[in-house]
Amino acid sequence: MIFKQCGKNMYVKISVKDLVLETERLILRPWRESDLADFYEYASVPGVGEMAGWPHHTSIEESKRILAHFLARENVFALVYKENNKVIGSLGFHPSWTDSLEAYKDLRISEIGYVLSKDYWGRGLMAEAVRKVIAYFFENDLVDAFTVGHYSFNNQSRRVIEKCGFQYVKTENYTSEQTGKTYESLKYILHRKR
User: Fold this and answer.
1) What burial letters (b/e) apply to 59-89, b meaning 16+ CB within 10 Å?
2) Predicted pLDDT at 13
3) DSSP conformation class of 107
């Protein structure tokens, strides 16, 4: 872990380069170049990226460029479905929406973001992955809190957040750099119990 000052707060820059976590149905591991076909398969489906504020991929070259970004930054897990050994989504760590807020200045915080293939929605897989990440990082005292957010229309993400015990904090408007659109975004936090 690398702790960086970001705004007033301490952002935990998480590297997943050498980390593999496992749940009952999933393996969370670093991305590989060989994951490109699986990545493009789910990222090119209309409605998947849009739920997270990015347009679905229109070419495999676009997926290749973004996969290279994942590989270079080392902050995003590939989610592998054990039953078929297929990459079906991602779970990454990013600077938090709390970064400029005084109330959180003494906390080591990272934001969780995730995307799941539409073929696997409604099975509880993302909640399973998020719970595993929370347990690992809290039990190993690597962060004090995780934050997360979802757009008001993204009920699937809202259900994951609620299942994982996050507490609602506020709603604000957010403009996506990738789409240029402004969305109503709900923000949540989960503190590590001491």
Assistant:
1) ebeebeebbeebeebbbbbbbbbeeeebbbb
2) 85
3) S
38 Cβ contact list (under 8 Å, min separation 6): 86, 87, 88
d(CA 159, CA 172): 19
Residue 176: C-alpha distances to residues 10, 49, 67, 185 (Å): 24, 12, 20, 11
**Prediction pTM value:** 0.91
Residue showing tokens 């991305």: 31
Rounded alpha-carbon distances, angstroms, from residue 142 to 16, 100, 108, 194:
13, 21, 8, 13
**Which domains does the chain show, CATH number per domain?**
2-191 (3.40.630.30)
Mean pLDDT for each 10-residue chunk of the chain (194 residues)? 52 89 98 97 91 88 94 96 98 91 88 96 97 96 95 93 96 83 92 86
Strand runs labelled E in the chain = 2-6, 9-13, 21-22, 26-30, 76-81, 86-94, 108-116, 145-151, 167-175, 182-191
Q: Are strands 9-13 and 108-116 parallel, antiparallel or unpaired?
A: parallel
Residues 164 and 126: their CA atoms lie apart, in Å, by 10
